[in-house]
Amino acid sequence: MSTAYLAAEGHEERLSEELNRAGVDTSAIHGRLFITDVGPIDAAWAANTWFDTRRLPIESIGDAARRLRSRQRSWAMYAPVHRGRAALISEKLPPLSGRPLELGQPAPTSPLGSWTLLDPDVMLIAERCSSAFANGEVPLAELKVGPPNRAYRKLWEAFVDLGRFPEPGDDAVDLGASPGGWSWLLAELGCRVAAVDKAPLDETVAAMESVRTLQTSAFGLSPSGVFDGRPPKWVCSDIACYPDRLFPLIDRWMVLDPAPTLIFTIKFQGETDHDVTDRFRALPGARVRHLHHNKHELTLIVGG
Ligand SMILES: C[S@@+](CC[C@H](N)C(=O)[O-])C[C@H]1O[C@@H](n2cnc3c(N)ncnc32)[C@H](O)[C@@H]1O
Fold this sequence. Notes:
about 25% helix; elongated; five-stranded antiparallel β-sheet; 2 domains; about 25% strand; alpha/beta; Rossmann fold; binds S-adenosylmethionine; 16 strands; VC0802-like
């Protein structure tokens, strides 16, 4: 078994630390790609994980393209070196769509492999990868009219990752909502939104009919006071705070019955705390991922 991990851009060191902690040797590096000889682990800082990688000697550009095409239709190139030769191989492969997702559109389901040139005459390939997108980069359409900032994109990507968007009429709580990108997105998707922040919302978001502002601390809020005691379908949090502070908050919302789906940003200040990441990962039904639209932060998703 062999696995390769493509670090999210700018997060090579964090991924290396994460792999090392799990006992994975990270000495074989190719650009942002860590090539290992062991089975896969769940790596939060990987933009894409290549499963069951294989080294293929190639005789020519045409031979490389033929070998890839004979396995499956779609292949994403990763070319940190030998770029010109890799581009010539790529030109002989069926084109990838690359079209940005529209709001509500799910991830593509057709298999997408990854390949790279280790040497001019050696490819590393993987038919199966963790991401449905080339190099884990999730292209989203620009929604220019409406949102007060671009933060809505990471929540949108979380829904794509989850494989499910809110339904019209769902109740959603947005913790740490100001200025209101997430609340705007939730309202745009048809949710009734309780936007919680000590800071005010952008005026246009506050004026949206389905957005209710609760100008208070998220840490002092009782779930029973938000939607007349009904558990919301979604609890989203982008609160700027130390990761540790989120655990009691998560507990409070997780115990509701039926349990909401939770989408929480985990923001790191300075050093990355891998122990805290493990604690989030250990929550029942939890996944922790660095999304393409995340910065020095991870996204926790709890719920199927
Ligand atoms: C990164 S911003 C959120 C951006 C927002 N998701 C958006 O799309 O516009 C972080 C927010 O956390 C809020 N925050 C910090 N401590 C908080 C607390 N105790 N309760 C509620 N909000 C808090 C800050 O006021 C700030 O507005």
